[in-house]
Design the sequence.
């Protein structure tokens, strides 16, 4: 019998594992766009530590190993910005990303008063777009990321997070 993946709030002790996991997971995104300067690949460990301390950050654990993470923060307008969702490549396709997203949505709505969830992903990131649309996100616009990657912006109302199960 294998171990099960658990979802929990990240602690400051998780920052280094999140940092390494993010670097591993976003290599495929970088390759997709031919751009290895995307934010998750150039973010510093100190910056990840600061996000873990200040933002709503969840991790997926398999035993003691962090195998997934997601971050979110609520802006002044009540919108929760969710980002850097990643799952270890060997565990993708098993619903861990959706579980992380649900945990972040619930905490952002219940604990931080979010009224809308907003995220963005690269235009060519079909797997990400499939997940986000499956759990109720709709395209609301496009933009060019600071790193030059063409992005799609997606949103859904905060009251719909429970329906993403």
Sequence:
């Amino acid at each position: 019998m294998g171990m099960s993946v658990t979802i929990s709030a990240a602690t400051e002790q998780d920052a280094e594992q999140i940092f390494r996991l993010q670097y591993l997971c976003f290599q495929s995104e970088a390759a997709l766009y031919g751009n290895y300067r995307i934010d998750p690949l150039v973010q510093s460990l100190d910056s990840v530590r600061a996000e873990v301390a200040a933002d709503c950050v969840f991790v997926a654990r398999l035993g003691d190993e962090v195998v997934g993470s997601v971050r979110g923060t609520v802006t002044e307008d009540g919108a929760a910005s969710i980002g850097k969702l990643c799952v270890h490549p060997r565990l993708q396709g098993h619903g861990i990303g959706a579980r992380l997203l649900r945990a972040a949505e619930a905490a952002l709505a219940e604990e931080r008063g979010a009224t809308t969830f907003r995220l963005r992903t690269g235009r060519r990131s079909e797997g990400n777009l499939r997940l986000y649309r499956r759990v109720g996100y709709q395209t609301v616009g496009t933009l060019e990321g600071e790193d030059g990657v063409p992005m799609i912006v997606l949103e859904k109302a905060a009251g719909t997070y429970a329906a993403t199960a």
About this structure: The chain has a mean pLDDT of 92. The longest strand covers residues 65-74.
